[in-house]
Each structure stands twice: as C-alpha cells, then as structure tokens.
Design goal:
eight-stranded antiparallel sheet; alpha+beta; 18 strands
C-alpha cells in the first residue's frame, strides 16, 4: 500500500514539474527581448537617437502647423455641450489650428502639449479616467466613413480574414513618438498616483497595448512599462524600465520629468514590438506574440492613441498630468502610398 502511495505521489510531482516547465516555455515565447527576433523596422533604429526633428517645430504656430493632425481626433476632459460625455474635436477643425489652453496647445519650444486633470469628463459611463488624447482617424476628415467598425477609418491584424482586410483602411502598422512627461499626479490614492498612459493600440473593446509612464512622489526617476490585454481577457504586464509598483524605489535607469525620450510601437504578423529610445543610451525593445490574443477575429478593428490618459481619478481636483510631444507619426503598409 505504501509503495502504491509513493508511486502516486511521485507521478503527481512529475506532472507538476512538467506543467511548470511548459508554462515557463510558453511565457518566454510570448514576451521576448532577443534582438534576433526584431524586424528591420526596429532593429535599424540607432541606439540613443531620438525620433523626429524637433528643431523644425515653430513656437508661434498651432499644433496642426507643426504636426499632421488630419489623421487624428482629440478627446478632451471637458463637457461644454453638457451631454455627459467628454468633448471630441474631429479631424478637420483639429487640423485647422485648434488650440485650447491649458489642455492642448503649442509650448514655447514648439512641442504639442497635452494636459489632463485628475477629475474631468469621461468618454463613457464605463471609463474610469479622464484624458486629453488623440485617436487615430484614417478617414482623414471624410465624414461619410463611420468611425467604429471594420471601415476605412481603422486597421486590422494580419490574422484577420481576407474579406475583413479588404474593408479596413490598412493591415497592421506602427506609431512613433518623441515626448517629455512634464508632470504627473501627486495626490489621491497611492495606487493611482503618478500614472499616465502615453500611447495605446485600442481594439473594438480592449487594448492590445497601453504604454505607461509612472513616477512616484518621492522618486526622481519614472518607470516605463506596458500592458497587453487579451481580447475579452486578462492583462499581461511587461516592464521596460522599473515597474508599475506603487512602492518602487527610484528606478536606477529611469526617466526624469521633462526628459525627452522616444517610443515606437509596431504590429507585424500579429507580433507586438515596443522600442524605448533614450538619448545616448542603448535602446530597449520587448516583443509579444499576440497570435492567440483574439485580435484576428472578424469583429476586431484597431486604432492608435497618443497623448495623456490620466490614470488617477481622485485627490485634489486641481491636480493634473502633462506631456509635450515633439514627434508623432503613424504609418501603415499601403496607407496613403
């Protein structure tokens, strides 16, 4: 009897060990920072060289004179028409000189400023946080094209069905940005303080990526990390510098407020590539295989977002986040060629 029990226990231990090994191998396959896995669009990025040409920006111009904003709409944390939803500035007015200080305007150095209070109007009842954020609009002002759905306003993954690809504006693509986070929230719940989303891919309901900057009140440096949300599933968190912890000591290689840095987010053949670029430092790149994340389904469409999506909804109502963008470029194979 004892020998039988020992045999059973040994078998159970062996199965548990095999399960752990399989799970570890799967996790390594999903998230990778191996240079050999990178496409040319990321491997060719020079180390330590910020993207864009900030010296071409004019301080005396509205944002749309420095940046091509016809590919974007702007969500504001205001509700001027009292419809209980955040206001939206669509492509044509946004690209025709729109500014609204202190939320969206041109800085003294020509950068495009986004600021958002902790407490502000939200896009829907299901949204917890306010934002001053651009939403990609590939229709470029053609109001006959619907903003939602598989239309010429949005893009899809390579794993989508051929008929879906034909209806979309593009298949996959990338977003480049150079920015400095000028301020983060300093009041309210300690689990929310200091958090702001500075770039996204939004899908039909979920987010293949949310890119975060976070600096805690007692730290000099901030972290950069991202979340990958499976379609109708859970988040996987990936650290680039530091972590999302609300008790994190100063990240030794972190990014200060007002320090310029660049990021590039790409989707190629269902794989997510995220590169962080800092001046005179080695680039950091992480990859995530999204093949099994559910975004190749026929009802899934994508669009990039950039700006500040405040991840603190409490504390002092005068508290706010702010970032200044010096480069912003969205690209899709075959789009506007």
């Amino acid at each position: 009897m004892r020998s039988t029990l020992k045999s059973i226990l040994y078998t159970i231990q062996l199965l548990l060990l095999i399960t752990v090994v399989i799970c570890s191998a799967t996790a390594m396959a999903e998230v990778s920072d191996s240079p050999s896995t990178l496409p040319e669009s990321h491997s060719s990025l020079p180390d330590g060289m910020l993207l864009g040409e900030a010296n071409r920006l004019g301080a005396d111009k509205p944002p749309s004179d420095n940046f091509d904003l016809l590919d974007w709409s702007l969500t504001l944390p205001t509700d001027l028409n009292k419809d209980l939803k955040a206001d939206t500035i669509y492509e044509k007015p946004l690209s025709s000189g729109f500014e609204l200080k202190p939320l969206f305007y041109t800085a003294d150095d020509g950068g495009m400023v986004f600021a958002c209070p902790n407490v502000g109007a939200k896009t829907s009842k299901n949204t917890k946080y306010a934002r001053t954020e651009l939403r990609e609009m590939l229709r470029r002002g053609n109001m006959r094209v619907k903003t939602q759905g598989i239309t010429k306003n949005n893009w899809v993954f390579a794993g989508a069905h051929g008929s879906v690809k034909g209806k979309a504006a593009a298949v996959e693509g990338n977003l480049e940005a150079t920015l400095a986070v000028n301020r983060v929230s300093i009041t309210g719940d300690e689990k929310m303080v200091g958090r702001v989303i500075i770039g996204q891919i939004h899908a039909t309901d979920d987010e293949p990526i949310r890119l975060y900057y976070r600096k805690l009140p007692n730290n000099q440096f901030g972290s950069i990390y991202f979340a990958h949300e499976e379609n109708d599933g859970d988040d996987t968190w990936v650290n680039l510098i530091g972590s999302r912890s609300h008790t994190l000591p100063d990240p030794t290689d972190g990014i200060r407020l007002n320090e310029k840095f660049s990021y590039k987010i790409s989707v190629e053949n269902n794989v997510l590539f995220v590169t962080l670029i800092r001046q005179s430092k080695p680039n950091i790149t992480k990859t995530f295989d999204m093949t099994d994340s559910g975004y190749g389904k026929s009802n899934q469409y994508m669009y990039f977002k950039a700006g500040v999506y405040n991840q603190n909804n409490g504390g002092d109502p005068r508290d706010y986040v702010q970032a200044t963008f010096y480069h912003l470029k969205n690209q899709h194979p075959g789009y506007r060629d």
